C-alpha cells in the first residue's frame, strides 16, 4: 500500500520511504536560480520562491512531513536510510517537475545539502546543489558558492512528466546532515505548522511562545526542521497580509462583515472633510440585550491607549448578575473634547434604543461632565473618588503635615454616617489644617452631591465608587493588545478578549446553578438566599453573615407609625483587633415584615434579633438571581474570530473527524493499524481525484475576501497626541500607586496604559 501511494504521486520508478509516509503535511520553499546570471549579487544566488504562489506545496502537503510534528515513525523501517538510497537515477520518470523536486529535496536534506532550480522551461528542467555557482571575484565577507558539480538534468515531456537524462551525485564540499535545517532550501514550514502558527497568533499568543509550543510538539528545536527566524518571518508575513489595506478601511470592512453575521450589531464611524476617520463606536447585540436588564449603573472611562494612532479607547462598562464587569459599548476617539464625548454618548444612546442609564460613574473631566449633562439629563452622574484622591499630593503640597491632612480628608469622606456629620467634619477639617482659602477644596465642596458617598448611598451603585470596573476591563485587555496595535489588529484581538469574557460568564452560570455553597451559619434564611442568588453574590452575603457577631442591638424605638427603629452598634475589626464603633439604624415594620435597605450585616442582625427565619421574596433582587432568564445569554456572539477563513474552518472540521478516530483507536494496536490503512487508502483516492492538477493554494488574501457589497473607502486617522498627555507618564502618583506599580510591573509600560495627566492633576 505504501509503495502504491508513492507510485501514484511520484511515478512508477520509486519506493516510498517510511519517513515520507508517516509524516503528515508539508510545504516547501523552493530555492530558485536562473542559469546565466553569474554577474548577479552574491545574495541573489539563492532566491526562495513565495510559498503562497507555489502549487507544488499542496501536493507535498498530503505526502510528506519531515519535521516530525505529526509523524509516527515505525520501528520496522528507517525513513532516512530509504531516502538516502533514493537518489535519482538516469532514466527515471516522474509525474511532474514538482514530484521530482520533492523527492530530490528529501534526498538532499538527509544527505546534508540544499537544492536550487538551475533551469526550468517547457522542455528542460535542471536541479543543482545550491553551492553550484562559481564564486564571485569581488571581495566579500563570505560566500556559499563552491561551483559544486552535483546536479540532475531532466527532459520535460509534452504530458508534463519528466525523465532524468543525466545525474551527478558527487559534491566538492562537505555534506552536513545535522545542519540541513539551516540551509536555504530546507527551511520549510509544513502546512500544519503554518496553521498552528497562524491560529495561535490570531488567538493572541506571543511570537516566542507560539514558536516554543511547536518546538515542544516536535520534541525539541532540533526536530522542528526550521529555525525560529523562519517561524517569526511567517507570522510577520501573515500579519502584513491581514493588514495590507488601510486600517480605517479594514476596520470598516470588518464591522460590515460582522453586521452580515449579526443584524443587530451596531457600529458607526465619524469622518472629517478629507474622509479620514475621527471616531468609531460599536456595540454587540449581546451588549444591547444585557443593557436592557443592567442599565441601572454604568461606568465610563477613556484612559486606555491601545493603538499606534494614540486614540484612547472609550468603554461603557456595567455589572451583570454575577457581579462581573460586562462591556456595554466601546469606541475609539480622536480627542477628548466635549464634542467627541457628545458624539459617542448620542450614538451609544441610539444603539441602546434611547434608554438612559439610571446612574453613571466617570472621572473628573469637565468635557465628560458637559457631555453627560447634555446627552443624559435624567442620569445621576457620580465622579470617581480615585481621581479626586489622586490629586491630594498636588493640592495639599503646601500643608505642613501632609500625612495627617490626607488621613483627615479620607476619614471625612468615608466615615461620615449622615449629611450633617459630613458637613461638620468638613468644616473642622478646613479649620484644623488652615485650608479655608483652598480654591480646589472650595470647588470640590460645591459639587459634593456628585462624589461624596453620604449624598449618593441611597442610590444603587453595585458596589462602585470609582471607575475601577473600567480599569479592570482595561487590565484584562493588556494580554491581547498593546500601544503598537493597528486598528484592525486591535479590533480583532478585542473581539477575542470579549469572547473570553463571555466564557467566564458562562462558567459563573455553571457555578451558580450546579455548585452549592456551604453554609457558614445555622440561619434558615441563609440557605434560602444562597439558593436564590448567584454564586458570587452568595459569597458576598456570607462575608456579611460572618460579621454578625461583631454587631449588637443597642436600642429598639417603636414609632407612632408602628415602625421599629433598631440601633445597631458595630465594632470594626482592623488586624483582628476591635478598632472603632459605629452606630446604624435599621427600620423594621412587623406587619408584613418590611425592612428598609439592601441586605447587609446590620439587616441580618435585625433578622436574628427578631427571630425571622424566612425572607420575603420581594427583598431578593431580580438582578442577582441565579435562575432568572437572561436574554443576553441566549444570543450567540458573532465576534471573536470574524477573520477565520473558510479554508481554515473546513480544515478544522476534517481535523475534528480524524481526531475522533485517533482517540478511539489509540489504545488498541489493531485499531491503530486499521486507521492507518484507511488513511492510506483515502490518500490514494484523493490523489486520484486530483489527478488532473495539483490542489491549489488558498488566496493569500483569504482573510480579507471581498463581500457582496463593498463599504465606502475611509482613510486612516492621523497620529495625534491626546490632550494633556506627555510623552512619558510624568503624572503625580500616590505612594501606594508607585509601590504597587513598581512591584507589579517593574515600573510599568509607559504609554500603553495609565491616567491622563490633565485628569490626575486636576480641574482647578
UniProtKB/TrEMBL annotation:
Residues 297-390 form the MULE transposase domain. It is found in: Nucleus. Pfam families: MULE. Keywords: Metal-binding, Nucleus, Zinc, Zinc-finger. Residues 10-57, 694-764 are annotated as: Disordered. Residues 17-52 have a biased composition (Acidic residues). One of its GO terms (molecular function) is zinc ion binding. One of its GO terms (biological process) is regulation of DNA-templated transcription. GO terms for cellular component: nucleus. Residues 742-758 have a biased composition (Basic residues). InterPro entries: FHY3/FAR1, MULE_transposase_dom. Putative transcription activator involved in regulating light control of development. Belongs to the FHY3/FAR1 family. This is Protein FAR1-RELATED SEQUENCE.
Amino acid at each position: 500500500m505504501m509503495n502504491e501511494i508513492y507510485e501514484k504521486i511520484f511515478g512508477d520508478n520509486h519506493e516510498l520511504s517510511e519517513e515520507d509516509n508517516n509524516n503528515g503535511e508539508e510545504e516547501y520553499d523552493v530555492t530558485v536560480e536562473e542559469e546565466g546570471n553569474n554577474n548577479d549579487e552574491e545574495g541573489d544566488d539563492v532566491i526562495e520562491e513565495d510559498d503562497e504562489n507555489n502549487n507544488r506545496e499542496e501536493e507535498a502537503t498530503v505526502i510528506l512531513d519531515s519535521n516530525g510534528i505529526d509523524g509516527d515513525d515505525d520501528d520496522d523501517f528507517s525513513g532516512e536510510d530509504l531516502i538516502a538510497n533514493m537518489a535519482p537515477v538516469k532514466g527515471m520518470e516522474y509525474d511532474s517537475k514538482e514530484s521530482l523536486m520533492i523527492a530530490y529535496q528529501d534526498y538532499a536534506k538527509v544527505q546534508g545539502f540544499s537544492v536550487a532550480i538551475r533551469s526550468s522551461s517547457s522542455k528542460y528542467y535542471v536541479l543543482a546543489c545550491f553551492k553550484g555557482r562559481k564564486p564571485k571575484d569581488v571581495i566579500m565577507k563570505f560566500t556559499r558558492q563552491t561551483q559544486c558539480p552535483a546536479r540532475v538534468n531532466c527532459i520535460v515531456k509534452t504530458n508534463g512528466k519528466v525523465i532524468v537524462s543525466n545525474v551527478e551525485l558527487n559534491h566538492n564540499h562537505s555534506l552536513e546532515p545535522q545542519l540541513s535545517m539551516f540551509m536555504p532550501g530546507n527551511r520549510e514550514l509544513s502546512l500544519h505548522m503554518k496553521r498552528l502558527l497562524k491560529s495561535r497568533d490570531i488567538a493572541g499568543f506571543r511570537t516566542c511562545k507560539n514558536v516554543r509550543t511547536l518546538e515542544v510538539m516536535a520534541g525539541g528545536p532540533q526536530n522542528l526542521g526550521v529555525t525560529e527566524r523562519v517561524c517569526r518571518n511567517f507570522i510577520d508575513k501573515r500579519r502584513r497580509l491581514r493588514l495590507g489595506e488601510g486600517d480605517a478601511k479594514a476596520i470598516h470592512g470588518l464591522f460590515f462583515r460582522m453586521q452580515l453575521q449579526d443584524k443587530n450589531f451596531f457600529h458607526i464611524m465619524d469622518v472629517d472633510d478629507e474622509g479620514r476617520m475621527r471616531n468609531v463606536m460599536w456595540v454587540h447585540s449581546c451588549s444591547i440585550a444585557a443593557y436592557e436588564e443592567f442599565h441601572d449603573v454604568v461606568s465610563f472611562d477613556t484612559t486606555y491607549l491601545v493603538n499606534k494612532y494614540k486614540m484612547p479607547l472609550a468603554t461603557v462598562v456595567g455589572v451583570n448578575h454575577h457581579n462581573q464587569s460586562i462591556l456595554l459599548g466601546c469606541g475609539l476617539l480622536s480627542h477628548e473634547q466635549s464634542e467627541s464625548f457628545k458624539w459617542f454618548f448620542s450614538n451609544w444612546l441610539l444603539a441602546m434604543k434611547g434608554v438612559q442609564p439610571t446612574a453613571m460613574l466617570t472621572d473628573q473631566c469637565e468635557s465628560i461632565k458637559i457631555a453627560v449633562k447634555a446627552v443624559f439629563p435624567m442620569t445621576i452622574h457620580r465622579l470617581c473618588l480615585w481621581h479626586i484622591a489622586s490629586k491630594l499630593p498636588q493640592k495639599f503640597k503646601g500643608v505642613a503635615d501632609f500625612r495627617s491632612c490626607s488621613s483627615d480628608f479620607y476619614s471625612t469622606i468615608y466615615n461620615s454616617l449622615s449629611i450633617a456629620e459630613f458637613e461638620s467634619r468638613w468644616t473642622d477639617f478646613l479649620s484644623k489644617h488652615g485650608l479655608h482659602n483652598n480654591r480646589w477644596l472650595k470647588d470640590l465642596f460645591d459639587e459634593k452631591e456628585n462624589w461624596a458617598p453620604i449624598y449618593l448611598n441611597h442610590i444603587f451603585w453595585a458596589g462602585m465608587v470609582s471607575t475601577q470596573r473600567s480599569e479592570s476591563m482595561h487590565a484584562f485587555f493588556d494580554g491581547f493588545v498593546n500601544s503598537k496595535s493597528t486598528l484592525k489588529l486591535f479590533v480583532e484581538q478585542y473581539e477575542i478578549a470579549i469572547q473570553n469574557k463571555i466564557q467566564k460568564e458562562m462558567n459563573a452560570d455553571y457555578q451558580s446553578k450546579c455548585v452549592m455553597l456551604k453554609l457558614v451559619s445555622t440561619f434558615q434564611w441563609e440557605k434560602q438566599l444562597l439558593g436564590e442568588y448567584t454564586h458570587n453574590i452568595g459569597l458576598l452575603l456570607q462575608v456579611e453573615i460572618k460579621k454578625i457577631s461583631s454587631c449588637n442591638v443597642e436600642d429598639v424605638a417603636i414609632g407612632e407609625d408602628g415602625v421599629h427603629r433598631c440601633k445597631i452598634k458595630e465594632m470594626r475589626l482592623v488586624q483582628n483587633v476591635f478598632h472603632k464603633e459605629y452606630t446604624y439604624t435599621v427600620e423594621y415594620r412587623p406587619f408584613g415584615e418590611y425592612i428598609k435597605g439592601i441586605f447587609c450585616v446590620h439587616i441580618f442582625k435585625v433578622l436574628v434579633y427578631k427571630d425571622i427565619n424566612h425572607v420575603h421574596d420581594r427583598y431578593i433582587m431580580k438582578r442577582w438571581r441565579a435562575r432568572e432568564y437572561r436574554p443576553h445569554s441566549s444570543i450567540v456572539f458573532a465576534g471573536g474570530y470574524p477573520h477565520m477563513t473558510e479554508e481554515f474552518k473546513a480544515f478544522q472540521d476534517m481535523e475534528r473527524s480524524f481526531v475522533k478516530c485517533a482517540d478511539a483507536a489509540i489504545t488498541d494496536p489493531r485499531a491503530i493499524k486499521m486507521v492507518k490503512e484507511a488513511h492510506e487508502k483515502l490518500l490514494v483516492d484523493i490523489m486520484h481525484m486530483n489527478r488532473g492538477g495539483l490542489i491549489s493554494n488558498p488566496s493569500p488574501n483569504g482573510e480579507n475576501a471581498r463581500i457582496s457589497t463593498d463599504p465606502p473607502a475611509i482613510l486612516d486617522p492621523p497620529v495625534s497626541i491626546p490632550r494633556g498627555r506627555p510623552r512619558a507618564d510624568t503624572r503625580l502618583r500616590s505612594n501606594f500607586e508607585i509601590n504597587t506599580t513598581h512591584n507589579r510591573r517593574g515600573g510599568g509600560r509607559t504609554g500603553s496604559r495609565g491616567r491622563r495627566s490633565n485628569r490626575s492633576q486636576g480641574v482647578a
